[in-house]
Amino acid sequence: MTDQLTIVKHPLIQHKLTLMRDRSTQTSVFRQLLREIGKLLAFEITRSLPMTTRRIETPIGEMTAPVIDGPKLALVSILRAGNGLLDGILELIPSARVGFVGLYRNEETLEPVQYYFKVPDDLGSRLVIALDPMLATGNSAVVAVERLKRAGARNVRFMCLLAAPEGVGRMTEAHPDVPIVTAALDDHLDERGYIVPGLGDAGDRMFGTK
Ligand code: URA
Questions:
Q1: How far is C-alpha 134 from the chain's CA centre?
Q2: E-assigned strands of the chain?
Q3: 3-state DSSP call for residue 76?
Q4: Of 95, 111, 91, nearest to 103 (Cα)?
Q5: Which of 79, 84, 86 is nearest to 147 (CA)?
Q6: Shortest CA distance to 92 belongs to which of 77, 78, 75, 76?
Q7: CA distances in angstroms from 55 to 16, 59, 71, 95, 210, listed in the order given
Q8: Is the C-beta atom of 202 inside 6 A of ligand 1?
Q9: Which spans in 126-190 are helix H?
Q10: pTM, entire model
Q11: What's the rounded Cα separation, in Å, for the pair 193 and 113?
Q12: Ligand 1 contact, 87 CB (< 6 A)
């Protein structure tokens, strides 16, 4: 696969993902696991954040200490399932700015239609991390990133929990500049666009809807 894709194979992530996939895992546990994996994936996706230094005083003496450089990063949840990843990352990076992109699928054209778009200002100067647990067909992810770029974003990364080869292909073709970080690359999509073996509908499992 493309080197645009990073699969984070850390044992904690893989173990938690297996629990999430299991159909007998209940809603509250599913949501908690997604929050925890979001936090762990955030570790990977922020690995190359630019650093600078600051002079500080410890109780013992002075030192030049490392701090993250640049403006606060922007986390953008692709509604509604993106919110599950968002919660975990915000626990790790509480000062991040947050945006939301809402898209639904027109059942006739099958094209994503935007119904909500609210993002932090100055997108062009921030690292923007777009969030959606499932990169399936890639249709909504590709459109969401397109809208973010139209709003000024120049440095975008995409975080998901599970990816299908079809979605990765669509994303790398449409946005070759956007690194993708995921916990697993599954086998294929079924005829309804679900990831196989996947975990079912992430939004339904997270919010207890059907
Ligand atoms: N969205 C989901 O929630 N699950 C899939 O398998 C594919 C898209």
A1: 9
A2: 5-7, 51-57, 62-68, 74-78, 97-105, 112-118, 127-131, 134-135, 155-159, 162-163, 180-182, 184-185, 188-189, 195-196
A3: strand
A4: 111
A5: 79
A6: 75
A7: 39, 13, 19, 21, 54
A8: yes
A9: 139-150, 165-174
A10: 0.95
A11: 17
A12: no
Give phi and psi for 127, each to the nearest 5: -75, 125
Structure tokens at 139: 């249709």
Q: What is the residue whose two structure tokens read 């946005």?
A: 175
37 Cβ inside 6 Å of ligand 1: no
Walk along the chain (210 residues) and give the pLDDT tens digit of each residue: 789 999 999 999 999 999 999 999 999 999 999 999 999 999 999 999 999 999 999 999 999 999 999 899 999 999 999 999 999 999 999 999 999 999 987 777 767 899 999 999 999 999 999 999 999 999 999 999 999 999 999 999 999 999 999 999 999 999 999 999 999 999 999 999 999 999 999 999 999 998
Write out the two tokens for 173: 């073709």
135 dihedral zone (left: phi>0; alpha: psi -120 to 50; beta): beta
State how far the Cα of 128 lies from the Cα of 125, in Å rounded to an integer: 9
Distance (angstroms) between ligand 1 centre and the Cα of 133 equals 8
Question: Ligand 1 mean position to 64 CA, how many Å?
Answer: 47
**Among 177, 112, 113, residue whose Cα is nearest residue 149:** 177
Q: How far is CA 182 from CA 65, 79, 159, 168, 190, in A?
A: 31, 18, 6, 10, 20
